[in-house]
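Re: duplicated header lines in exported structure tokens

Our pipeline writes sequence and tokens for each protein into one text file. With two proteins the header for the second block appears twice in some exports. Here is an export where it did not happen, for reference. First protein block:
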Amino acid sequence: MKKVLSLLLTGVMTLGLTACSSSNSAAASSTAAASTAAAGTDVTRIALVLPYVGDQSYFDVTNNGLTLLKEKYGDAVETQLIEMGTDAGGWETAYRQAASDGYDIIISGNFQYETYMLKVAADYPDIKFLNFDYSDAAANTMDNVYAITYASNQIGYIAGVVAAVKTESNIVGCIGGMELDGIKQFLAGFMQGVNDVNPDCKVISGFVGDFQDTGKAKELALSMYNQGADVIYHAAGGAGNGMFEAAAEKGFWAIGVDSDQYAIFAEEKPEIAKQILTSAEKKCDQGILGAVTEMIEGTAKYGTQKTLTLADNGVGLAENDNYKANMTAEQLATVEEYVNKAKDGTTKVVDQLVDNTAYDTYLAKTALN
């Protein structure tokens, strides 16, 4: 009997100590508990590391990739968005923290911060990394890194086709974020699309200098409008919202990028949405869904890179209600004709990342002055 009482008292004391410890360290132990639970139930833990979300463009459509994964896999995956901020000084630390937290798959990348991710990937060979938008193919060859990218030249091209079909002034504009080859890739494609449809149409091109300055993007758009541009496209991330503001004020047509930006603004800012004719989409969310599916199913080809194109629906045009309502049947048919030629390879779209003279060549062909 004494032995039984002793055991009972020991159990009570143990429970009491455990409860006390838990109350004092709940926050610290939550990650470990999740990791233990995941290990016990074969849950795949996935982290998406981005500078921030809320740009209503590139980062938001990328973040939607986590939503698509949850919709497909449910409780079989645990997903976490990690916002590492815009200060490059903290990026490597953010990746190292994600790796030490025990995620099975870490998703990140693009030309701005892939080098930081890849440095950490080299130190954690047992963790799988997805570079959802690589720029340097040579750097993405590690055995634990799977890399995808998108035919941004084709994205720009289809936007240029729409602009050339829709313009009445024969002057259109395009705005890039930073003056880098990765952004010039969009704009060179845009200028080719314009030129293929209408060699007499002129293009005004400019750069914001970053991907956040909406004021500068608005200023550029207004300047283009004052020079006669009646359709303007942007490849400037969140800064492109400034172009949309200008379009709402002046009534010119805007073409968005990365996601269906008309749909994003339709409910909360209909006055802006109605001026967004369409968007040339970089389907990062679908890219993430497809790539992570391959990683989970064991078919991903690590150490390789895949480019998603018009042909495999990795990029495309947002053919929403606003687009259809504001395009004539003839205009729609013309756009479809040119897009299909780019899709089946009949039209070869220039690529600034392959030929770094592409942007300058088409700028010379299409410049207003």
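Second protein block, exported in the same file:
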Amino acid sequence: MSDMLNLPAETRERAGKGASRALRREGRVPAVVYGGNEAPLSIHVEEKELARQLGTGHFFNSIVEIVVGGETLRTLPKDVAFHPVSDRPLHADFLRLAANARVHVEVPVVFDNEGASPGLKRGGVLNIVRHELALVCAPESIPEAIHIDVTGLDVGDSIHISHVKLPDGAASAISDRDFTIATIVAPSALKSEEGDNETPVGA
């Protein structure tokens, strides 16, 4: 699973745009912790530390323990708003995790052993339909990535969710169909004469 992150915070006494701008001038980012059948908690965190954790590449799939007022809150990051020009974080939302909670996450897909795929070795192309999988799992079981082995796959073969072994305790958030994750196509099939770029059936 992804590493647990620790994020020190302080409570926000004042709300509103003016107060938020003042915090940002001081190198702080306003944020809110919500959910868990409790009232939302307005906090602010250090911009540099938030940016560092965002740079880990697995921030949104990690449990973030927010330490505020001597209390530790187990949370899952849900959203970060960025400045459209500078890309600085402007605001963050964290979901408070209750005991025995199950969460919805988007986990990246990694394809392994491409050199062992006859279709790819003969010039076929791995056409990835879903770069991430929507999963439901316990916070402690969030995987960093879902690895899919393409050994033995040839041109025309498809990988569906039913072919993927998910980690223990994790399930696909889409349960009503056996959707396509990737296909191996011949180079000439990437663009048909009609310019048909429709998503494959079941995606």
